[in-house]
Structure formats: C-alpha cells, structure tokens
Write a structure and sequence with these properties.
single chain; alpha+beta; 7-stranded antiparallel beta sheet; about 40% strand; globular
Length: about 150
C-alpha cells in the first residue's frame, strides 16, 4: 500500500455520497466490467482485517469475481480520486463460508450497508428483500491504494 494514500482516505472521498464507488472486475475475455456500488470499510467478519465491503446481486460481477477475484474500486469527490486494488472474497447464499450462517449473513448485510453510509426505515423489509434477491457480500482484501 502506498504510504501517501491510506485506505481510510480513499473511502472518505465517497462518504458524502453514501460510499458510491466504481467497482471494476475482469471478464473472461480480459476486458473490464465496471459498475457503481455503495462500498464501506469495516473489519472482515472472520479475520478482523480492514477490508472494503459491498452487497451485490450483480450476476456478471459475481461471475467475474468467482473466476477472477481481482477487483479495483475507485472513489471520487469532485476531481479528487483514489483507487483501491485487491482480492475479493464472496460470502452469501451461493458462496458459503465456514464462518457464515444465515443469521450472520442477515446482520452482515446490514453492517456493510451502514458502513457504506446507508440507512433504512424498515430493517425487516431490507432483510426480506436482501434474502429474496439472494444478495451476496463481497469483502476486498486491499493490496494497493493510489490517488491523485
């Protein structure tokens, strides 16, 4: 990780925009697939290491990450930007982890959403929709941070 730019600095750029960031994954043919997601910073639920995290049900993104877990996330505020490169770990209904049961998945979806700046008026409804859509959690172990 660059000593000039920290992970916390990168995530802070998107704080006023609910953690909105561009996540880029690698397609099978070597091209880039990018999408917008709300990303937060929190301790990994198993290792306690600081990681980027987001909740998704994006079929293309998940397919790419399952096959090629490299992921790049770019945060911005005006003309300031920071990019975080790392390796993704998926946890969810189709991606079981030994440290994750259904109840922990339910609460982690909330924790990740809140870490990204999200709020909700009806958490039971949030839980229902997340489960119905089969949303997965993506945790990104950070390897490099750089910025302008």
């Amino acid at each position: 990780m660059s000593s000039d730019h920290t992970l916390e600095d990168a995530v802070a750029l998107a704080r006023e925009n609910n953690g909105l960031a561009v996540v880029a994954t690698l397609r099978e043919n070597g091209t880039i697939q990018a999408s917008m997601v709300n990303v937060g910073l929190l301790p990994h639920p198993n290792t306690k290491e600081q990681v980027l995290a987001f909740v998704t049900y994006g079929k293309v993104k998940l397919k790419n990450l399952r096959a090629r877990p490299q992921v790049t996330t770019t945060f911005q505020q005006g003309w300031k930007w920071a990019t975080v490169e790392g390796v993704a770990e998926i946890a969810g209904p189709d991606d079981p982890q030994p440290w994750l049961d259904n109840e922990r998945l339910r609460t982690l979806r909330r924790e990740v959403f809140v870490a990204a700046g999200g709020t909700h008026d009806d958490w039971d409804e949030y839980d229902r929709v997340m489960a119905e859509q089969g949303r997965a959690l993506v945790f990104v172990r950070v390897e490099r941070v750089y910025s302008n």
